[in-house]
Amino acid sequence: MSKKISRRAFLKGSITIAGSVAASATGVSTATALTREKKEPLATLIDISKCIGCEECVYACQESNADKYPNPEKPYPEMFPKRVPIEDWSQKRDVTDRLTPYNWLYIQHATAKVDGEERELTIPRRCMHCDNPPCVKLCPWGAAKQEDNGLSRIDSDLCLGGSKCKTVCPWDIPQRQTGTGLYLKLLPALAGNGVMYKCDRCYNLLEKGEVPACIEACPEDVQTIGPRSEILEQAHALAKEMNGYIYGEHENGGTSTIYVSPVPFDELNNNIEKGDGQAHFEKVENKMASGNNIAKAMLIAPLAGIAAAAGKFYKAAKEDE
Amino acid sequence: MKKKINIQSCLYGITFFFITLSGFAQMPIFKRYYISDIPGLGWLADFYITHLMHYMFAGIFMGLVVYSISNFIVLKTGFIQLTRDMIIKIVIFSGLILTGSLMVIKNFSGTPFSNGMVIALDILHILFCMALLFFGVYQLIKRKKELLSG
């Protein structure tokens, strides 16, 4: 290392490095500004104590969303390799005891003790509409999207049915139908496998200023929709009143579906049927948090690069003296 | 001096390998094509692990790029001259870093990106990656031809 460095070059180098540091700092503040919330999302409150399990919400959902359901073309293309599963619900459209591409909301049953009495509780289950939804953020094609009002939905014209959204969803909500969608026009044997479907919180009705079909149809007013802060306020007041419990406020970093129950959710979780298409009530850590924390730490990387170069430059300057 | 350049090249190589691997793992292909069935590669089917890995190597990559640029500006070392190939590489790297950084911002809660922009970023990021891979193959062939022709 015998490169000659003049005083002028040293000053020039120092100014360049200082400029780079300033540019990095500007990048940090821009990133912070871009991640600010635009407007408050809508949330729903589900009062489990009111639900009678009549399934009116389930049928209203099916009726309201019938035109969004898939009409797969048969025969389905041969897929490679053979392990790729054909998921066909088109002949089982009347299934209502779990989530399917044709059933985006179902009623879960649990037996639990409420005020010392054994009681059957019924719970409407569907997409939680997470505040920072992994299904949307990790979709490799942008087929899943989050609207300004907080709802997340899957664009059936873009989805290739790779099922990544279901894998990363803490509740395994999206369900696949083979034989439909964009993949048929691309490489049906080698990539994709249909379209993923889930509750879109009736985005088309919300756009018209109406409420989602399940809320409108409920004879017991189990669900309420409103700005998230107001819904959380109501949920806490209700939980206090019934000496109950809240689920969905902090799960996966926060969701827009807030359940209030007269029994603890771990007890409910032990008493419900769980499995494919049947969601749990477990505690869920913020799935996107680790990545986003690393992203914040990544801002140091350019600074480390600058520091390493500055160190090298300083060493060279010292050697020249 | 020569040894230091080799360490830098080695770091670039390792970073490229893992950043490309974890990048492709963001698509649901490794499980479908039995790659994650190979003993020791099961983690390739875990989208959260590969997502974190992609971020970490992206950070290392950015650090390396900034180090190289600082060296070039201050010490005039690293790149001897801006050849056509070098300019192509700079354009591809810039594209990858820009689209990747915006996608990282997108993954925070409440980002204001429209869905159209998210789709554009996803596609552009993949296209820049493919461009880098094809350009790497082109450079290998070119170098081999030059060696053969003496």
Short description:
The complex is a heterodimer of chains A (321) and B (150). Chain A contains ten helices and ten strands.
Describe the SSE topology.
The complex is a heterodimer of chains A (321) and B (150).
Chain A: H1 7-34, E1 42-47, H2 56-65, E2 106-114, E3 117-125, H3 134-137, E4 144-146, E5 152-154, H4 164-168, E6 175-177, E7 195-197, H5 203-207, H6 213-217, E8 223-227, H7 228-242, E9 245-247, E10 257-261, H8 265-271, H9 289-298, H10 300-320
Parallel strand pairs in A: 1-10
Antiparallel strand pairs in A: 1-8, 2-3, 4-5, 6-7, 9-10
Chain B: H1 2-24, H2 47-75, H3 84-106, H4 115-148
Helix pairs in contact in B: 1-2, 3-4
- List the total number of helices of chain A: 10
Strand portion of chain A, in percent? 15-25%
User: Strands of the largest sheet of chain A, in order across it?
Assistant: 8-1-10-9
> What is the share of helical residues of chain B?
over 70%
Annotated CATH architecture of the largest domain in chain A: 2-Layer Sandwich
**Number of structural domains of chain A:** 2
Quaternary structure type: heterodimer
User: What is the β-strand count of chain B?
Assistant: 0
Content-based structural category of chain B: mainly alpha
| Structural class assignment of chain A | alpha+beta
- Spans where pLDDT lies below 50 across 5 or more residues of chain B: none
Order of H and E elements of chain B: HHHH
Instruction: Report the C-alpha radius of gyration of chain B, rounded.
Output: 18 Å
Largest sheet of chain B: none
DSSP strand (E) fraction of chain B?
under 5%
CATH topology of the largest domain in chain A: Alpha-Beta Plaits
Number of helices of chain B: 4
Q: Tally the beta strands of chain A.
A: 10
Question: How many structural domains can be distinguished in the coordinates of chain B?
Answer: 2
Q: Uncertain spans of chain A, ≥5 residues at pLDDT below 50? A: 1-11, 16-37
| Biggest interface pair, counts | A-B, 55 and 46 residues
